[in-house]
Each structure stands twice: as C-alpha cells, then as structure tokens.
Write a structure and sequence with these properties.
Helix content: 25-40%
Number of strands: 4
Protein name: Large ribosomal subunit protein mL45
Function: Component of the mitochondrial large ribosomal subunit (mt-LSU). Within the mitochondrial ribosomes, required to direct the nascent polypeptide toward the tunnel exit and position the exit at a distance from the membrane surface.
Strand order of the largest sheet: 1-2-3-4
CATH class of one domain: Alpha Beta
Number of helices: 8
Structural class: alpha+beta
Main location: mitochondrion
CATH topology of one domain: Nuclear Transport Factor 2, Chain: A
Keywords: Mitochondrion, Ribonucleoprotein, Ribosomal protein, Transit peptide
Distance between the termini: 95 Å
GO cellular component, one term: mitochondrion
Length: about 325
C-alpha cells in the first residue's frame, strides 16, 4: 500500500510545475485521502446499494377445471374425489313412515262418534302393520305383539334411570346411536330427578314398520308403543336451582316411543330410537331461568330499601328437550 502511494506521489509531482511547497500540500492531501483509516471510515459511513432481489409473485390458485386440463395436456390422470360421509348401519337415521296419533287421544271415549271414527281409522292402518309383524317374526322368533309392549316399557324405564345416573355404558345398550345425543344433550352440568309412578293405561303396540337400508335384504324393525303413564320430573342447574318441573307434582304423560332393532344382526337388541310428538300436543312449560338483578348504586351512608326495588319478570321461553 505504501509503495503504491509513493508511485502515485511521484506521478503527481512530475506534471505539476509549481513549487515544492505546493506539491507537498497536494501530496499530503492525496496521502490523507488514500490512507486506509480514511477508507475504512468512509466505507462505514457511506451507504452502498445492495443487490436488487428478484420478486416472485404468488401463484394464483387454478380452478379444478384448469387443473384437469393441464393434467390431461401433460398426460396425467387425476383421481376422482368422492364426497363420502361415514354412516352407522346398526341403526337407521330416522323414523320410517311415522305413526300419526289421532287428535284427542286418551281424552275421547270410544262410545262417542269421534272416538268411533278414530278406532275405525286405526283398524285400517293396522293392515300394513300386520305385514310388517310377519317380517319381524321371520328374523326374531321371540317377538310377540302382545308381550312386546311390557318389555318395551321396561326398556323405557331403565333407559331413563340410566340417564338420571349418567350410566353411559348401559345407556348405549338401551338406546340407539340416533337417540343417544338427543337424550344427553345439554345435561352435563344439570341434575335430573325422574321417577316412574304408575301406568294409567296398559302400554299398547300401535304401529310396526320393517324398512330396509343400503340394500334390499338389510332389514330394520321399528315398533311404535303408546305409553300413558304418571311421572315426576325435576331439573336443577349446576347451582342447585330448580329449572323445570317439580319432584312432588306427578303429571300424566302420553308418549309414542319408537323402538328399533337391526333384524339381520343375530346379536341385535330392541332399543329406544325416538319419540313421536303429535302436532296437536300442548306446549311444554317454560324453563325457570336464573337471572341477576342489578342493585341500585348507593352512597356509603345510604341503605337499600327492598320495598322500592322492582324485580323484572323473565319472559317465558319455550324449551323442548
């Protein structure tokens, strides 16, 4: 570095025709400018533009049609995608040909004109049920239409007792996969008190259907049983407050419960599958909701007067389990 600076000074001194003092000043200025200290300082201060980077724009998402065209042009075959949903073949997804309860059931006497018409319509509907009973007996030799109603009532009572005790293992054996979420939904932090008191009328088999699913030979038996019973029900929230019903108040309950069995399965069992709620059924009692009443703002020297506080009444909300 020093040799190159000396050569540069000699080259500068030769063309200049001035005095020695002027030449020395010029040489000192060049030497100061070309010193490595100055060069390092200038490189640290002066900003140098870096290499410009190439920007790659994001690729646009091609539609499925464009992808298929591009694949065909390239000689590739795209596998067809199927929208599949898993199903459970141990039970059906609904109630086939549901039973239509006559209006005013358990209220009209068969001696009246309207009651006689209802009995006549029920006998007409029972023709299809007789054909279905024959199919059920072909796969379930122990099925008896007279004895099945009492067995169904035992299943009904035991399933509700398992719901009260939160016995999920036994409840799965008594209800189908379709009925289970409807029974346990919303009961996680609640306390249920349910009791079966008595039967006001003997349980009766009113409707039988034998549908098939997926294939023609995959048969399911659906039996609708009419229950007219007396029960008590009370539901408490997680704080122990009463939400619905009363433990000491028995109520008459008229229900149409559907029981189902996979007939082709030799190990199949009769289980609760759902309930049929007629259109003429009266609405259920609303839930008693617990709300917080905001207290008035008081000064430290004031006292609250309970008589002057107006408690707002909650609006009635229709709730169905």
């Amino acid at each position: 570095m020093a040799a190159s600076i000396g050569r540069l000074l000699q080259a500068v001194e030769q063309p200049l025709g001035r005095g020695l003092s002027a030449n020395r000043q010029v040489c000192q200025g060049l030497e100061a400018l070309l010193s490595p200290v100055k060069l390092c300082a200038s490189a640290a201060i002066i900003t140098v533009r870096t290499k410009k980077r190439h920007y790659v724009p994001p690729r646009k998402q091609d539609s499925s049609v464009d992808q298929e065209k591009a694949a065909r042009a390239a000689g590739l075959v795209i596998r067809q995608q199927y929208m599949e949903r898993p199903i459970n073949i141990s039970c059906t997804a609904g109630i086939f040909d549901p039973y239509v309860p006559p209006e005013g059931d358990a209220r009209m006497s068969s001696l009246t004109k309207a009651g006689f018409k209802q009995r006549l319509e029920q006998t007409k509907q029972s023709a299809a049920s007789q054909l279905a009973i024959r199919k059920v007996k072909e796969h379930d030799q122990e099925f008896r239409s007279k004895d099945f109603a009492s067995k169904a009532q035992d299943i009904y009572i035991e399933a509700h007792n398992c719901l009260v005790n939160f016995d999920k293992v036994l409840l799965h054996k008594l209800v189908t996969e379709r009925c289970y979420p409807d029974m346990v939904r919303g009961n996680r932090y609640k306390t249920i008190c349910w009791r079966f008191l008595q039967s006001l009328e003997a349980p009766k088999l009113v409707h039988v259907r034998c549908p098939d699913m997926v294939s023609k030979g995959n048969l399911y038996g659906q039996v609708t049983v009419r229950f007219h019973t007396q029960q008590t029900l009370a539901i408490y929230d997680r704080f122990g407050r009463l939400m619905y019903g009363n433990e000491d108040l028995p109520k008459d309950v008229l229900e149409y419960v559907v029981f189902e069995r996979h007939l082709v399965n030799p190990y199949g069992l009769w289980r609760m599958h759902g309930k049929i709620v007629p259109a003429w059924a009266p609405p259920k009692d609303p839930i008693i909701k617990t709300i917080m009443i905001p207290a008035p703002k008081l000064e430290p020297w004031e006292e609250i007067e309970v008589k002057n506080i107006e408690i707002p009444k909650p609006e009635s909300v229709q709730w169905s389990k």
